[in-house]
Amino acid sequence: MHQSGLCIKNVVSLAKRKFNPGKQGTFNYIEIGNLSGEGFANSEVLAMKEAPSRAQWIVKTNDVITSTVRPIRRLSALIEPEQNNYICSSGFAVLKPTQIEPEVLLVYLRSSTVCEILDLHTTASMYPAISTEDLLNIPITLPEEATRQKIAEKVRESRKAQEQSKQLLEIAKTGVERAIETDEVTATAWINQQLEALGINLSHSN
After folding, report:
1. Which residues pair with 93 in a beta bridge?
2. What pTM was computed for the model?
3. What percent of the chain stands above pLDDT 90?
4. Are strands 92-97 and 64-67 parallel, antiparallel or unpaired?
5. According to DSSP H, which parts of the chain are helical?
6. What is the greatest pairwise CA distance in the chain?
C-alpha cells in the first residue's frame, strides 16, 4: 500500500557530518560540477592544506546528495561504497535514507516535476538556492514496497551497466596506448585479460 501525506523529512535524515581538514594528506572532494547527468558523483583529490571553505560534509555509502543551488538542474547523486567518507561541498544537502530506498530517493529528486517544485522555493536571482528546511518539507508519496524494490533493482542494474561502460572505454583507451608502445599482440592479450576480469568473453560473441 502506498503512503501519501509525507514529506522528505519523514523518510530521510539530514546528515551533517562536519569535515575538519588536517594539515597533511589528501581527501576526495565532490563539488557540484562533479555530478553527472545520470546521478553519479565524480570527485577530485585535493591536499588537506588546500581544502576550500565549502568542503564541509562527510558522505557515507548510500547517502543521496542533492544540490541546493539551482535545483532545476537535477543534480543529485547516490554515494557508492568506494566513495564512503568522501567530502562534499556545502552546496549539497546530504540525505541519509531511513524509510526509503536510496535508489528510489535518487529517482524522485531527479524527476523534472520535483525539481520544478524545488525551484519554486529558491531565493535570490543571481545564486538561486533552496534552504534545507524547505527541501525537507517537500511532499513525497511512497509507492508500495514491491514497487519500490523493482525501482531500486532497475536503478542498480542501470548504474552497473553505465559503470561497466566506463570501464570498457578505459580498457579500450589503454589498449590503444599499449599497442602503440609495444605491439598489437601484447595489447590484445592485455585487453582480453581485462575483459575476462569483468566477466566478458569475446570468443563467445558473434
Report:
1. 66
2. 0.78
3. 63
4. antiparallel
5. 102-110, 112-120, 132-136, 145-181, 184-197
6. 64
Report pLDDT digits (tens) over 20-38. 998 899 999 999 999 987 8
Q: Which three cell numbers stand for residue 116?
A: 520544478
Give residue for cell 566506463. Answer: 166
Exposed / middle / buried, residue 39 (Cβ in 10 Å: 0-12, 13-18, 19+) = buried
CA proximity to 132, closest of 14, 53, 30: 14
Cβ(83)–Cβ(103) under 8 Å? Answer: no
Q: CA triplet 170, 176, 178: central angle to 5 degrees?
A: 100
Q: Is 11 helix (H, G, I), strand (E, B) or coil?
A: coil
Across 108-113, average pLDDT? 92
Q: What is the mean pLDDT of residues 131-151?
A: 92
Q: CA-to-CA distance for 18 and 56, rounded, in angstroms?
A: 6
C-alpha cell belonging to residue 201: 568473453
The rounded distance, in Å, linking the Cα atoms of 202 and 116 is: 45
Closest CA to 103 of 64, 142, 60: 64
Q: Pick the residue with more confidence: 186 or 206?
A: 186
Sheet-wide strand order for 55-58: 44-47, 26-30, 87-89, 55-58
Q: Which helix (H) or strand (E) holds 27?
A: strand 26-30
